[in-house]
Amino acid sequence: MTTEDFKRAAAEAALAHVQPGMKLGLGTGSTAALFVELLGARVAEGLHVVGVPTSESTRELAERFGVPLTTLKEEPELDLTVDGADEVDPELRLIKGGGAALLREKIVAFASKRMIVIADAKKVVPTLGAFPLPIEVVPFGKEATRRAVERAAAELGLSGKVELRRAEDACPIVTDSGHSILDGHFGRIDRPEELAAALSAIPGVVEHGLFIGLADLALIAGADGVTAIEAKPAGTEARRRTA
Ligand SMILES: O=C[C@H](O)[C@H](O)[C@H](O)COP(=O)(O)O
Q1: Which of 8, 97, 165, 243 has a Cα at 20 to 30 A from 181?
Q2: 101 lines ligand 1 (CB under 6 A)
Q3: Does domain 133-207 have CATH number 3.40.309.10?
Q4: What are the tens digits of pLDDT across the range 40-93?
């Protein structure tokens, strides 16, 4: 089986958690796109749900696959968000934002009663940080903000570079909300909560890609099938079981 097959298996497993009438947050990225496609097929069969897309690309996909859409303005409280991740640790802490959608993804996940992460097994890591941490910043003063991020990380013992993300034409990428993205090449992030707090305290940082305490369940697909990692009450480790 290919990585694509595993992503599809995780997306299929998430569909079992969707109930008629639900208001759904629709994530961004290649795995979330498969969920939107499968959801569209269920809608075509008569399932009634509405979705709030976390990016313009997901909006387009949902429209293409016939998933009815709404907005957080119309529906400020959602039942369930299903989204991918760049990294998942055993305590269900995530790095997200590889596709530059982290701000809307975090707003939508925060507005949802539950968040389910769908991913192939390569996304599961013992410690976050091999994937560069995306940080969404206001374009004004972005070099000053970049340096402030490097300093804050260094104070926590993280010495990696922080780089402005650029498109293939070398121009800084612009997010759906008109911001820039910095990527923090920190390596191993042993204390993600401390880094999250330090980043949030920097003027110019809009949001960072550390998702802590947001995910309730991760559905991880690999050669052995789909495995679930469930959130446990604060202070205890996430628990694994076979889905
Ligand atoms: O900004 C993008 C999102 O956080 C994605 O959910 C994340 O990058 C995972 O994407 P994929 O499923 O394509 O690996």
Answers
A1: 8
A2: yes
A3: no
A4: 999 999 999 999 999 999 999 999 999 999 999 999 999 999 999 999 999 999
